[in-house]
Amino acid sequence: GENVEQHPSTLSVQEGDSAVIKCTYSDSASNYFPWYKQELGKRPQLIIDIRSNVGEKKDQRIAVTLNKTAKHFSLHITETQPEDSAVYFCAASPYNTDKLIFGTGTRLQVFP
Amino acid sequence: ETGVTQTPRHLVMGMTNKKSLKCEQHLGHNAMYWYKQSAKKPLELMFVYNFKEQTENNSVPSRFSPECPNSSHLFLHLHTLQPEDSALYLCASSQADRLGNQPQHFGDGTRLSIL
C-alpha cells in the first residue's frame, strides 16, 4: 500500500540556523503534498502545501521542494526561531483519493 | 481557528463502557475524517466520509463505529475498547476534490484513556 517515510525523527538547531526535513513517498501517482505543524497539546496545522505540477513553493521563511522523479519532497525552514519548535508531519495524497498518508513526524527543537 | 470542533476534549472510560466522540465542522466542507494519533506513530487514518458516504474504512476494529448524519457532523461510537485504544482521536474536514486533494483542517482532538 501507500507509504510515506520521514527523516529525521528529531532535529535540533540553533536559533537562526536552517532546518530541513525530508520525506519520500511510494505511490508515484500522488499529486498533493501538505506539511503540518503540531505544537504540544494542539491540533496539526497546515503550514504549506505543494501540488505535483509545481517543483517549489515558498512562503516567507518556509519552503517546500518536490522531486517527482525521485518521489521525495522536503520542508526548508530558514532563520529558525524558538517558536518553530514543534512536531512537523509530511503527507502525500494518492491520485484520485480523498485521503492523506502521513509520515511519522519530525520533532524540531530550536535552541535560543 | 474554530472551524472544526471536537467534544469532549478528554474522555476516560472503562473497557465495558459505551461512549461517543463528536465532531462538527463550520467550513462548508464535503469530506470528514477520523484519525488516531498514538505516541511515536504516524497519524493513522480510520474513516473517511465524502458527502455523508463512507469511502474509506482502514481496517478499523468493529468496536469503533462511525456515523455521519450530514456533511457537518461526524461521530465515533466506542464500545468495549481495549487499553491499546488509548490515544488522541482527531477529526478533520476538507473540500475533497477527486482531481487533487485539498487541505485538511483538524480539530483539537479528544484525548481518550481506557482504564
- Largest chain-chain contact? A-B, 28 and 28 residues
In the predicted model, the low-confidence regions of chain A spanning at least 5 consecutive residues are: none
Number of helices of chain A: 0
**Which sheet architecture does the biggest sheet of chain B show?**
7 strands, mixed
Q: Which structural class should the secondary elements of chain A be placed in?
A: mainly beta
Give the low-confidence spans of chain B: none
Quick structural overview:
Chain A is an all-beta fold. Chain B contains no helices and eleven strands.
Folded structure, characterized:
The complex is a heterodimer of chains A (112) and B (115). Chain A has strands spanning 4-7, 10-14, 19-25, 32-38, 45-51, 56-59, 62-67, 72-77, 86-92, 101-102, 106-111. Chain A starts with a strand and ends with a strand. In chain A, 0% of the residues lie in helices and 54% in strands. The mean pLDDT of chain A is 94. Chain B is 0% helix and 56% strand. In chain B, the strands form two sheets. In chain B, strands 2, 4, 5, 6, 9, 10 and 11 form a seven-stranded mixed sheet that branches. The radius of gyration of chain B is 13 Å and the shape is globular. Classes of the chains: A mainly beta (112), B mainly beta (115). Chain A binds chain B through residues 4, 6, 31-32, 34, 36, 42-46, 49, 51-52, 89, 91, 93, 95-105, and chain B through 1, 4, 31, 33, 40-43, 45, 48, 50, 55-56, 90, 94, 96, 98-109.
Provide keyphrases for this structure:
heterodimer, A: 112 residues, mainly beta, 5-stranded antiparallel beta sheet, globular, B: 115 residues, 7-stranded mixed beta sheet, 4-stranded antiparallel beta sheet, 11 strands
